[in-house]
Amino acid sequence: MFFAGIDIGSLTAQAVVIKNGKIIGAKTISVLPHPVDSAKEVIDRLLSKQEIKWEDIKCAVSTGYGREKIQQEGLTRENISEISCHGLGAYTINPNIRTVIDIGGQDAKVIKVNQSGKLDNFVMNDKCAAGTGHFLEVMSKTLGVSLDELGPMSRKSRKPVEMSNRCTIYVETEVIHFLQQGVSKIDIAAGINRAMAERVVALARRVEPEKEIMMTGGVAKNVAVKSEIEKTLKVKMVKSKIDPQIMGAYGAALFAQKQEGAK
Fold first, then answer.
1. What Rg, from alpha-carbon coordinates, does the chain have?
2. What is the rounded CA–CA span in Å between residue 97 and residue 84?
3. For residue 263, what pLDDT band results from cuts at 50, 70 and 90?
């Protein structure tokens, strides 16, 4: 039997199909204006690619923004918070995981799970763009580099700049000032990633993270942010065996499988 998870974020939408707990296929697209349209598009593309019919999906669960509307439209049987989905997904990949740092486009979450993989505690930042993927997106545009370049280029820095502000708008002004002063883009990029990591670490310390930590979400692909968080928390992140950006959808698919099994 096939089970599906649909995760609609602020910038991207993901869908995952599993069978016996294993991923059969996954798809990521840029979001459309309406979350239901995003859900339909991403799951249709995935099913078409895998040559699976919608009727073959025994159960589907939605998560992320607009997850309730997606369920109301009849696309999914249930909706579950992305906090629980990221926690279950990471724990399923590695049962030693106790802390998950999920950084998406508009928010950041630090999630703690117990020895059974169930949610134990969490803290979330969704009031400020600083410490989110949007922060990095704004800074990369200001710096004149792609988002994918921001992490690798900063690792070449030997003298990262210090960002004195915490607000995204003011940090953007600082970046412009550094550029006008002729500071190397490499050193500015390193300062941006370090500032990002500092905000995430401050959030993580509010729940006293345990050492078995995994990063999920799109920002987990930024090697510099990940490295700075590891350095500050004095840990080595547990590597995800799947694309960290599809973790929420994977967790949702796992919940779909659990629900069917509980019937």
1. 19
2. 14
3. very low
- 8 A C-beta contact, residue 70 and residue 79: yes
For the stretch 179-225, pLDDT in tens is 999 999 999 999 999 998 998 999 999 998 888 999 999 999 999 99
Interval 106-124: pLDDT, tens: 889 999 999 988 899 999 9
Architecture of domain 97-240: 2-Layer Sandwich (3.30)
Alpha-carbon distance of 4 to 30, in angstroms, equals: 19
Residues forming CATH 3.30.420.40 domain(s) in the chain: 1-94+241-263, 97-240
Provide the whole-model pTM: 0.91
How far out from the chain centre does Cα 43 lie?
A: 19
Classify 134 as helix, strand or coil: helix
- Provide CB contacts within 8 A for 21, sequence distance 6+: 92, 254, 257
Q: Are 213 and 27 in contact (CB under 8 A)?
A: no
Tokens (6 digits) for 257: 């499988």
pLDDT, tens only, 2-61 = 999 999 988 899 999 999 989 999 999 999 999 999 999 999 999 999 999 999 999 999
Treating both helix axes as pointing N-terminal to C-terminal, what angle do 185-204 and 168-180 enclose, rounded to 10 degrees? 160
Fold of the domain spanning 1-94+241-263: Nucleotidyltransferase; domain 5 (3.30.420)
